Amino acid sequence: MTFKKLALAAVIASVPVAGFSLESLEDATLSGVTGQDGIQIQIDTPVAGISGDIIVHDRGGFAGAASDGAIRIDNFALVTGVGGIGINIDAGDQTVAGAAGTATLNVAVSIPTGTSITTGAIQVGNSGRDDVTSNWDSAFNATVMNSATITLGATTLNIQLGNELQDAGGAATASTSHMIALSTTITGGISIANFALNDVNSTGSLGAANVLIADNNNATTQLAVGAVGINVTGAGLVVEVGSLGSATGIDMLLTDAYLGTSTDVIGDVSILGLNLNGTTITISGKP
Fold this sequence. Notes:
The protein is mainly beta. A hairpin with a 2-residue loop joins strand 14 and strand 15. The longest helix has 29 residues, at 3-31. Strands 2, 3, 6, 7, 8, 9, 12, 13, 16 and 17 form a 10-stranded antiparallel β-sheet that branches. 10% of the residues lie in helices and 52% in strands.
């Protein structure tokens, strides 16, 4: 037998073994997601995080400023905590035959403690979308809100697409089927560092060194998200707050709040017992 024939025979003989190894890996890896088949995604960012810009182009303007404008989120970033963000994806159907409207895509997301989101500076400027060059970027000349850093505790949320089966809050919310359902306890609450809202013409700011959002009267500093459901309806993005914080709402604690510049500190400010339970927020484009 020549060397070429021997090599070819070895390759052919190894194919079933390689196929078996691949199949075993897939079965072992994917079945570990929910005890059945599915897809698991793990996101671990570098130390500097992942970043980019978001620009919303308003080509219509408004009375007194009718040319196109834009809102820009400049250099937002995400840094994951220890363990990274986990995403488990499953698809299921309520019937064996697969009748229309019974299949669901389920996406479960877990966010670890210490995950931080840099909001990026919120700026406004000329869009450029109604110019001859039709530029997707633009020149921005006013920063209306400084970049702030939001730090999260351990958080979980569940997303369903297709036939939505989950109810975020039962009787606490208007809908009984939600695209996104949050029902978790965020350990440590939500912390927002370096918040500042700017008066561009007058050069002053309203801000705080840190804003903490937590349960009302909770010494352990946590934020309970008992029933928050999110849907995208014909009316827009609808957020139904069934239960946020304790039964008496949430506390917002502002450290080193200031008016003017960051050196013009008026002190610490607390907003106690802000109760948003039962509130519905709808966000949509203008008709």
